[in-house]
Amino acid sequence: MVKTVKEILKQDCDQLKNLFEELISKYSKIYRWNEPDSIIMSTHPYSWKELSLEGKQLQSRILKEYHYFAERLRLLLLNQPPDSIASFDDSKNEISAIINQERTYLSSLDEAKNVIYKNLDNQIKLLDNIYDQSSGKILYVPDTSALLSNPKIEKWRFVDVSEFEIILTPTVLSELDQLKINHRKADVREKAEGLIRQIKEYRRT
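The chain above was modelled as a monomer; its predicted structure follows.
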């Protein structure tokens, strides 16, 4: 059974929540850098303790996966009203600041988790404005590994799907560009380079 765009993004959203829960519960700590009676006034009086090596590795994974999630969602919202896009951008900035563990107004780890979960849920809800099961329109947003496994995009076929659109995100294009130069395996470099040429041809038509 083919999953809808919303189902896929909701699944990715739940995965991000699980990863962030691990980052918070295992590796993160918040402390107050600015004492209440300090002459230095700040709207962000709290900081994060430096992460361990394992914590930084998990943080890097979350940043990458959230960026990919947000990029797909943002593409789907392109034709939405300005207030919807502004809401998405605001929540993305707040989520990114917490994952990056920037200086914050949040005083506890529980607060940080609640803000992340609330913003992720709000981003998913924005899809309600555009999602219409009756339209019959199927969208596929492949990641880099899917493209490398099946590089002949024009020959893609799916069971029970006669017509569909493929969306390629900037992150995937950037990863292909890096792989064609930096990957240790020659066949992967060749596939990446071939895909880039193919995509450029699609743009010309």
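Residues 5-129 form one domain.
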